[in-house]
Amino acid sequence: MNLSALVITKNEATHIGTCLESIQFADEIVVVDSGSTDKTTTIAEKLGARVMVHPFEDFAKQREFTASQAHGRWILFIDADEVVTKELKEEILETIQSADTSHVGFRIPRSNYYFGKIPWPAKEKQPRLFLRTALTGWHGAVHETPVVKGTIGDLQSFLVHYTHDDLTSMTAKTNQWSLIESALLYKTHHPSMQWWRFLRIMLTKFVDSYVRQSGWRAGTAGLIESIYQGFSYFIVYAKLWEKQLHHPDKR
Fold first, then answer.
1. Which of 143, 237, 244, 248 has a CA positioned 20 to 30 A from the CA of residue 126?
2. In the prediction, which pLDDT does 116 show?
């Protein structure tokens, strides 16, 4: 078995079908679900995935468990709202079949689409393809990063990411993830939150999204997304402030 495609899910019935159809070229597809209440697992099973349920602690641990279920020499991590393009499929197959590759992992360029159809100007790279024996774990409860023994190279073809379907799902995810992120900040004894810290954080995130990433080129959607980035981090740090208020640092 040469390639295992791995997907972690929860209530992804809207996206999971398109995602799994794009990775049918893998020798096996493993879906690890953390308790979906919609038809995510049913759709995944119909599309030939090996589905198992595993309770969610954090993203790093969920990815580690998922990797432990793979049998392929290479493993490809794909999120449920992502799609592997034909060009990326061909590049992945060519890469893992090459006997002289010196890398044990690869970053994949990702093109983001907001509200199902609006492209985000800035592109990013995500480490997603690994030699299974070289991937030793993941680090970070949110925005997790892989721990790899060896060098990581870069693929050229794009992974398509359909993020932020609507404002309702955006705010729901922010509320969920902010609990984890604020707890991590509190655990690392983040300095006491003062009013000016909120302004600095929100402005920094807005400028990064709207200016550095050229969000202005996406029109109204770019402005909404950039303001929302500032709002998302406001929620994280407001929850941190709340924790500090009720449980002062005893250092």
1. 237
2. 83
Pairing verdict, β 28-33 and 105-114: unpaired
Say what the pLDDT of residue 120 is: 94
Q: With H, G, I as helix, E, B as strand and everything else as coil, classify residue 2.
A: coil
Q: Is the pLDDT of residue 69 over 90?
A: yes
* Tokens of residue 136, six digits: 């030793």
DSSP category for residue 153? E
| Burial (0-12, 13-18, 19+ Cβ within 10 Å), 200 | exposed
3-163 topology per CATH = Spore Coat Polysaccharide Biosynthesis Protein SpsA; Chain A (3.90.550)
Domain ranges, ordered by start, for the chain: 3-163, 167-246
pLDDT score of 165:
86
204-241 pLDDT, tens per residue?
999 999 999 999 999 999 999 999 999 999 999 999 99
**Looking up tokens 């398109």, which residue turns up?**
18
54 Cβ neighbours under 8 A, 6+ residues apart: 32, 33, 34, 62, 65, 66
pLDDT at 138 over 70: yes
| Cα 91 to Cα 100: distance, rounded to the nearest angstrom | 15
Sign of torsion over alpha carbons 92, 22, 162, 141: negative
CB under 8 A, 24+ apart: contacts of 16-19: 16/40, 16/43, 16/44, 16/80, 17/43, 17/47, 18/83, 19/78, 19/79, 19/80, 19/81, 19/82, 19/83
| Beta partners for residue 76, in sequence order | 5, 129
Token output for 29: 């597809």
- The length of the chain, given as a count of residues: 251
